[in-house]
Design a protein that fits this description.
Structural class: mainly alpha
Helix content: 55-70%
Largest sheet: 5 strands, parallel
Number of domains: 2
Distance between the termini: 59 Å
Shape: elongated
Strand order of the largest sheet: 4-3-1-2-5
Amino acid sequence: MDETVQFLAQHNYWLLIGAVLGRQACLPIPASLVFVAAGALARSGRLSLSGIVGLSVLTFLLADLAWYEAGRRLGDRVLHFLCGLSRDPGSCVHRANGVFSKHGVRTLLISKFIVGFDAVAAPLAGRARISAIQFLFFDVLGAAFWTSTYVALGYIFSDQLDRVASHLVHVGAFITLAVAVGVGFNVLRKFARWLRFFREFRLARITPQQLNNKLNAGEDILVVDLQGRPGSTAETMGIPGAVRINPRALEQYRDVRISPLREIVLYCACPGEYTSARVALALRLKGIEHVRPLAGGLKAWRAHGFPVTREVTMASPHVRA
């Protein structure tokens, strides 16, 4: 702890700014430890209490506003990104949404004390379309509460900090190693899970001939066209009866209800079926299990001479299928 205090005294308020920005960028920065040290320096007169709290709140506000805007514009994509290293990203997003739905913007008052939830509170507020004024009010109070708590601990117990730090030094290296191994394991496990899913997804492909036979037989199949990106024209061809979506804006379809028993066939015009795989994974997270890619995509469908049309319906975000 003495090293932290000395380092903070040397770099002054810039370290406080860096600690807050690193923390809000989801980096493993011990920001609480930095502010405890800042409280100790404030007691010795080397830093100003009002300066510490004011600068911290302002920095938190700027960082959280960026996450708030990201949540407002990108919705669930930001939440899935932030929950990406959890054991179950879908469950992580669901729990975070559940907590925010229950307590609303008031969660910002204590979110910075809750490991994990502190990262998603600001984007959740943006996704929920909380007004900017209301967000700023509660975020400022929450940042001030968090900062004042740790600064007060350092201010009051500054004489005991060195004694506590001597015990932490012995376990610090082990904790750092354990965290690094844990993060690395989660990254590798998530990558392996994605590879396994993609391999299973490719094995489950449906051929153009099989799809054509099912459609001619009148089977209940939802064919999803993934060519609805901005800039695509009305001349873009598709399979008759398909529903077109924009795969880069999946969050706008979050309220669409699809029967988990219905068979879904995805196709795009891109090679490799990576877009279909990404959309299929998103549907799996919604509980839709019967998802299959069209082998070879639209190009293979047309190569077989099967019918295509320019009149493909663009999906509405509120359609039940």
